[in-house]
Amino acid sequence: MSLSPEPPNQALPSGYTFSKFPYQLIEVLGQGGFGITYKATELKTNLKVVIKEHFPLNLVTRQDNRVIPLQVAGPADFKQSLGHFLKEAQTLTNFNHANIVKIKNYFRDLGTAYFVMPFLAGESLETILSRSPGQSLEEIKKWFTPILDGLQAVHARGIVHRDIKPSNVFIQTDLNPILIDFGSAGDILGGDMQNQFVTHGFAPPEQYLQTAIAQGPWTDIYALGAVLLYCLTGRDLPNSVARLIATTEGTFDPLEPTLQAVETKLKPIWARALRGCLCPEVKGRIKGVAELRRYLGIEIAEQPSKIKPKSLKTEAINKQNVINPKDLSLKGRLKNIWTTIISYYNDIRMFLFKDKSSIIFFIVFIIVISLIFYIC
After folding, report:
1. Rounded to two decimals, what is the model's pTM?
2. Which domains are seen in the chain, by residue range?
3. ∠ Cα 309 310 312 (to 5°)
């Protein structure tokens, strides 16, 4: 497994224009173990975009601009990795969330695949922390809560980011935070959690011990807790495997002094949540965003709209239009029931849509009512 070395420069040259797609590269924005990010121009609109190239260093090399699978690693591994990359592209293209990077387009060329994303004005959390390390909790909450919203939406689609760190939290000029770089993302349902690079201090033990411990939303929870702690202290975090070994053997956890120092400055609920996120053992860790919200008492950002109370004038008008149910035919009564359901949709959604079984029951109920209404 590769452990985030400084990658060699194998990027496409500045000025390169794709022969079949309307993009011209301007410069390299970044290069990691799993891909290369470019700033580019969309030639049809002259707008600036960001293009992410699928380029896993441990699986490929470049010859005459084309990406060639390494024979040592095996072309089959790259084919699987490429298929996963395209699947994530398709998923995220149809994904619309204010705190998740948007993908405008994706395509295959030069033996690999590419994401096309809007070029955002702002800077990464890593850049901000390099100027002013050690943020207050109030400053952190401004980006932490919205990122929770985005991460919960991502997990609901069966995707684990697996590389949450300060450089992948982008703060726009309007202060809206966006989670970026899904190049290491894994599919929970498909079990595609291999061939990854890890970032020391932010990656939990299961990303190092891939075959021994399952990965899932809890993997991102550890990383999110590590980012939170890093923002509070400005200090590098110890390797999570060393922490796991210490916990298992009952010896000294190298992160304990930092946790104890921070806890004196936090409210108890945040201190407990931080420990819950950063537990090196999966069984003791917070398992997902919903559980973390319960720890912190944070509501989801997009709440159902509330029905405004009716005025006395409106009530008086409505009373004139009230029809006695006894005067209605079966069809009329069913229509009246249907109208009532629709008018109180938000309340029904708030109380019934708590899990999948409730949603299925409600859908079946609506279908049955509709069929009876149609037959009558």
Report:
1. 0.72
2. 23-118 (3.30.200.20), 122-296 (1.10.510.10), 312-375 (no CATH)
3. 130
